Amino acid sequence: MAQVMRLDKFLKVSRLIKRRTVAKEVAEKGRIMINGTVAKPGTNVKPGDELVIRFGPKTVTAVVERLEENARKEAATEMYKIVSEVRNDQENGESGR
């Protein structure tokens, strides 16, 4: 088991983001933070790190549980724990009128 892993690879292997190229683009746009710091695609993640990912209409906060070079679909969800999922329109104080 790896001790550290590139952010873009972790997102792909864990299936938080299905494709590494998409993970790389999201990170390059500054939409991913690790422990409160904006992360680049090559930033290393390790168990215990908190990831905040802004996907279009929602923001997902997850904690890295473990790292694996390759994970089957069933094992991928064990690589992280979702802490929260927030719809961004609720964050901005807008109500659904």
TrEMBL record:
Residues in the signal sequence: none
Q: Does rRNA-binding appear among the keywords?
A: yes
Query: What terms describe the molecular function in GO for this protein?
Result: ribosomal large subunit binding; rRNA binding; tRNA binding
Listed A to Z, the keywords are:
Protein biosynthesis, RNA-binding, rRNA-binding, tRNA-binding
* Pfam families for this protein: S4 (PF01479)
Q: Name the SMART domains for this protein.
A: S4
Any idea where the RNA-binding S4 domain is? 5-68
What does the record give as the function of this protein? Key component of the ribosome quality control system (RQC), a ribosome-associated complex that mediates the extraction of incompletely synthesized nascent chains from stalled ribosomes and their subsequent degradation. RqcH recruits Ala-charged tRNA, and with RqcP directs the elongation of stalled nascent chains on 50S ribosomal subunits, leading to non-templated C-terminal alanine extensions (Ala tail). The Ala tail promotes nascent chain degradation. RqcP is associated with the translocation-like movement of the peptidyl-tRNA from the A-site into the P-site.
User: What does the subunit section of this Swiss-Prot or TrEMBL entry state?
Assistant: Associates with stalled 50S ribosomal subunits. Binds to RqcH, 23S rRNA and the P-site tRNA. Does not require RqcH for association with 50S subunits.
* Protein name per Swiss-Prot or TrEMBL: RQC P-site tRNA stabilizing factor
